Amino acid sequence: MKPNPALGPSRRRRSSNTSRLTAAALLLISLLQPGLLRQAQAGDIEVLHWWTSGGEARAALALKASMQAKGHSWKDFAVAGSGGDSAITVLRSRVVSGNAPAAAQIKGPSLQAWAREGVLTSINEVARAERWDELLPQVVSDQMKYRGDYIAVPVNVHRVNWLWVNPAVFARTGAKVPNSWDEFFAAAETLKKAGVIALAHGGQSWQDLTLLETVAIGVGGADFYRKAFVLREAAELSGPTMEKVLTTYKRIKPYTDRNAPGRDWNLATAMVIKGEAAMQLMGDWAKGEFLAAGSLPGKGFICTPAPGTAKSFIYVVDSFAMFKLKNPANSAAQRDLASAVMSPEFQEAFNLSKGSIPVRLGLKMDRFDDCAKASALDFNAAAKSASLLPSIANGMAAPSAIEWALKDAVSQYWNSDKMSAAEAMKRMVEATRAK
Ligand code: BGC
User: Fold this and answer.
1) Ligand 1 atom with least separation from CA of 158
2) What predicted TM-score, i.e. pTM, was given to this entire model?
């Protein structure tokens, strides 16, 4: 240690003794409480998300806890509603005003769009050190990168094409859990005659399109889905298979209730949990709601692939895009966030609550339930047989302008008593030209 020339000889000695003592004390403290010294570099970590329902909030807590354990202070930036549509609107205004959060729940092609705007930062340093390329399915790692740099970290894999069933309601009414669309309508009729709401639906445009994509893959198959929604071929979007999809879709409506318009998805799940409705067609974030309500798989609820979709897998990968930050402590916290999200501990804890499965390959599934185990097996099988497909309704398959335009077109068809399937197809083709 350099002597301080501003001090006299005795003060200098006292000063260096004091420094030695302070250093020893700090060492002792750091040995006893490693978290305390790290606090010096602690940053604020603000994360925008829309995980506000019971199951989602439990999952988000796992993230908060892992960041706090690293000594950072967590600033929750949750914006409820509409499958994230409101959250993205709020995010845009924050970014435009130069006040971006550290990370935001952004997924699919939107990651590239945000990166092109120059507002995202590279997290290659963490990704390389932890060898993410080897830990992720390539379909996922490709999407997390912009021009070869990781700009986002993936959290999970959700499956969209699930049917959630209240078995007590089925037993009481004598309805049979359906595997095909014919069986679905037979069960729905039995349930309706028994005075039960067959299908809990939330009439919001993203849920209307979620329902349509599920019918599309069930009726038309994986190849049709890819051509219609991933490649967006006009001939498929307005061909005979799509017409069959749209008429099947519309046949479902009489089995939903009058109060469906505007309803949040988790309130629809609550109807199935309480036995007010028999089924819901929804992604496995719905499972998070059953679990949060204390309902157990195979007992309180049953999960089964949506009719006709046993071999297909419509996926959603939630991810956090990383924004450029000015404060170095906050950037360090952001790197800690990226690392924590990919850790086996977090992947397990988060996904056990969220209803999804870990996106990190090779993790043990022992603590997961049968729905998640089936999802993991089907994910791998679908990846091999080209029936792994991105959700168009949940931000995975199209630029957001097209996705929003499709949601509008499909909701108009769902809600109209007069619109023909032909008119709906015309509007869907127009929607794919949205910019
Ligand atoms: C997201 C899920 C979320 C769900 C409902 C989906 O688009 O991927 O993480 O739970 O919307 O908000």
Assistant:
1) 8
2) 0.90
Q: In this structure, what token pair is assigned to residue 136?
A: 């992720």
Q: Which of 106, 394, 404 to mutate to test the pocket of ligand 1 (most atoms within 8 A of CB)?
A: 394
Inter-CA distances, 312 with 48, 104, 179, 362, Å:
31, 29, 13, 21
Judging by DSSP bridges, how do beta strands 156-159 and 145-146 pair with one another?
unpaired
- Which of the listed residues 86, 280, 316, 407 should we mutate to test ligand 1's pocket, taking the one with most ligand atoms within 8 A of CB? 316
Share the mean pLDDT of the chain: 91
Specify the pLDDT at position 41. Answer: 73
pLDDT tens profile 270-326: 999 999 999 999 999 999 999 999 999 999 999 999 999 998 999 999 999 999 999
Q: Of 381, 380, 361, 379, whose CA–CA distance to 134 is shortest? A: 361
User: Do the beta carbons of residue 289 and residue 269 sit within 8 Å?
Assistant: yes
Indicate whether residue 284 lines ligand 1 (CB < 6 A).
no
Regarding the beta carbon of 350 and ligand 1, being less than 6 Å apart is answered no
Structure token digits, residue 272? 């199935």
Q: How confident is the model at residue 84 (pLDDT cuts 50, 70, 90)?
A: confident
Residue 394 Cβ < 6 Å to ligand 1: yes
All domains of the chain in start order, with CATH: 43-158+316-370 (3.40.190.10), 159-315+386-431 (3.40.190.10)
Q: Give per-residue pLDDT as tens, 197-217.
A: 999 999 999 999 999 999 999
